[in-house]
Amino acid sequence: MGVARLFPHSRTRAAEPDSSPGIDPAHQSPRSRTRTARAYVSLTKPRIIELLLVTTVPTMVVADRGIPSVWLMVATVVGGTLAAGGANAINMYVDRDIDRLMERTKNRPLATGEIAPPRALVFAIALEVLAFMWLWGFVNLLSAVLAVSATAFYVFVYTLWLKRTSTRNIIIGGAAGAVPVLVGWSAVTNSLSWAPLVLFGVIFYWTPPHFWALAIRYRDDYRAANVPMLPAVASTRTTAVRMIGYTVVLWGLSVLFSAVGEMGLVYLLSSVVLGAVFLYLAVEVLRTKETASAMRLFSYSITYITLLFAAMAVDQVVRTGV
């Protein structure tokens, strides 16, 4: 499974620049310390975390059939942020060799040497330990286990195993990004049921068309790094056909949640309309086979997941009159 990539002595040839010790914070000026702090924050991939948390809070609202306590929402979001940040930092640590080869990632702090790999790994593990203790202490054990299990899956199944070996990398590995809805639901109920599992499916089937749309633009990057992301090894037509297939299932699951989650008209109409637009844009990628169409789908996919989950929360607030 490539576990050796976690350890400095087992680097690939592209990772040889790791011999740089990085910048020692103890010998930095205040301005340099600020820059280093920002570099550590960038290790957590904040923009990705924002997207994950967009799905967590609305899920909590649905699970509570109203607005959960502010403290519970804050505690869950903080714990989820720590867990996701640690997972992303470990991902950057493992992928520092290929990050240097890709235009999109060559300025990441481990690729540039701004942060030494051992310090990044310690930082990442510390975030995971803190996430588990935080969620266990302030939310519940089930949420803590789910959050850290997602990290383990992301690191060992996606990053270390599938990413460099299979075109199914983002299909299977994307399951880690669907766990926040389970964490949000369990934070409120301390249990799981069919409703959060359907939401898990929504994120799971949303991830491939979302990511492949971006990968179409950066297919040359993946080829340079020898990463078999689908658009890098298959035609745009093949990729688009698969994107359409996943979008159809995504649309069906989002509508299904209306019944399973006992949602109202606000959510049902939103899921139908938002899914129809998603499918239209996926078909446009197949029709035009242009990068511009893929990027329109990528941009909309973020809007889609944000509005879909916002509709869930609004639906519950309207129905309960909170």
Provide a quick synopsis of the model.
The protein has 15 helices and no strands.
Keywords:
322 residues, mainly alpha, Tetracycline Repressor, domain 2, Four Helix Bundle (Hemerythrin (Met), subunit A), 2 domains, 15 helices, 0% strand, globular
Low-confidence blocks of residues? 7-17
**Radius of gyration computed on alpha carbons:** 20 Å
In CATH terms, the superfamily of the largest domain is: UbiA prenyltransferase
**Helix content class:** over 70%
Count up the helices. 15
Strand tally: 0
**How many distinct domains?**
2
- Outline, from the CA principal axes? globular
Provide the structure class.
mainly alpha
Mean pLDDT over the residues: 91
CATH fold type of the largest domain: Tetracycline Repressor, domain 2
**Which architecture of the largest domain would the CATH scheme give at its second level?**
Orthogonal Bundle
First and last CA, distance? 49 Å
Characterize the structure shown.
The model is unreliable at 7-17 (pLDDT under 50). This protein has two domains: 32-190, Tetracycline Repressor, domain 2, CATH 1.10.357; 193-322, Up-down Bundle (Four Helix Bundle (Hemerythrin (Met), subunit A)). It contains 15 helices and no strands. It is mainly α and 322 residues long. The N and C termini lie far apart (49 Å).
